[in-house]
Amino acid sequence: MVGVFKRGKILYIQYKVNGKQVQKSTRLSDTKQNRKLIEDEVIPVLKVKLFNSDFDNKKPKLFNEYSKFYLEDKKYHKTIKSITSKVKSINEYFGNKRIDTIRKHDVKLWVQEQDKKGNTPKTIRNYLSVLRGVIDVAIDEEIITHNVATNIKLSTHEVEEIEPFTELEVRLLLSKSNGFLKLFLAISFYTGARTGEVLALMHSDINLKTKIIEIKRALSEGELSTPKTLKSIREVPIFDNLIPYLKDINYKSLFLFPKNDGSLYKSLAGHHKREWIKLLKDCNINYRKIYTTRHTFIVHMLKHSDLSIMQIAQIVGHTSTKMIIQNYAKFIKGEHLKVNRDLNLFTDKITVSTSLNT
């Protein structure tokens, strides 16, 4: 017997397999048209499957079989290369295990192995997310009932402190750099844009008349795509300090930072990374990732500009002020001590004014 019922505003179908009651969402809202669709098309097919005992023959497959289904579902995701790499790594450990034999203890042992390799908790969490996704495929097929990769406690890890560049260091880096690196650093320091966003800039994105840079694309895993989030698609003000660097640009390509053949650099690896390391050494500055330019911009904007945290968040493409407060407030300690000591606290200005006039 196959039936249809409503839960909330969604229609469900109900049937029995081997005496076990099964309820599955159709993901369709409760309308006459949807009920007719289910009665005419879904239920007849389901009855045939039940009659042929198609559901009785489900046997647990190996983990790597479910990982294929998981990747198929993610094939249009913008970070599919990264997801595929993670799945490949996870399959090296779990691939030949039958999905129903994997226990929480196995997952914990795998996490310990990742920890020994030097992976940070953040990296391990990203891998765990993929692992849970693959196991969820087996849950959807009703092969297993719960996900053993949930609620896995990770070891504590001291996060590497990001040290923004000082004003003197910024001026030194810009004065001693040349060509590609000089323009890249100038835009990065004066806009706070992400590395991939800067590399993907076109000449048409820069308007010196309106003093605006449009950020509407980014390089992600070597591919040109939309920025990190919808909030990352934005207009960034061109501050006066940046203008001299933008006036003398080579227009040999549509892009600001092309290779000799006009194509884009996939990242700042290789020659440009070596150039960055050499520049830091020449300036006698301790090594920092080039992404630190973004952190430097945010910290200096918080400390020295009149902009609100909301305005700064909008410039750098954060979805909210929460990220700014959580990650950068620690760099502006002591700012509260710079307030004007002449403030009259707990005083009604109107009362004071009235009393002075009497």
Could you explain how this protein is built, in words?
The protein is mainly alpha-helical. The protein has 14 helices and 8 strands. The protein has helices at residues 32-51, 63-73, 80-94, 104-116, 121-140, 167-176, 179-191, 195-199, 243-246, 271-282, 292-304, 309-316, 321-328, 349-357; strands at residues 3-7, 10-17, 20-29, 206-207, 212-215, 218-220, 223-225, 234-237. Strands 1-2-3 form a 3-stranded antiparallel β-sheet, with helices on one face. It has a 3-stranded antiparallel β-sheet with strand order 4-5-8. A two-stranded antiparallel ribbon has the order 6-7. β2 and β3 (20-29) form a beta hairpin. α2 runs antiparallel to α3, α7 packs across α11 (292-304) and α12 (309-316) crosses α13 (321-328). The relative contact order is 0.07.
Counted by DSSP, the helix tally is: 14
Terminal CA distance reads 91 Å
Pairing-aware structural class of the strands and helices?
Answer: mainly alpha
Task: Give the C-alpha Rg.
Answer: 29 Å
Main β-sheet, in a few words?
3 strands, antiparallel
What is the approximate shape?
elongated
Compute the number of strand runs.
8
Query: How confident overall, as mean pLDDT?
Result: 85
Strand order, sheet with most strands: 1-2-3
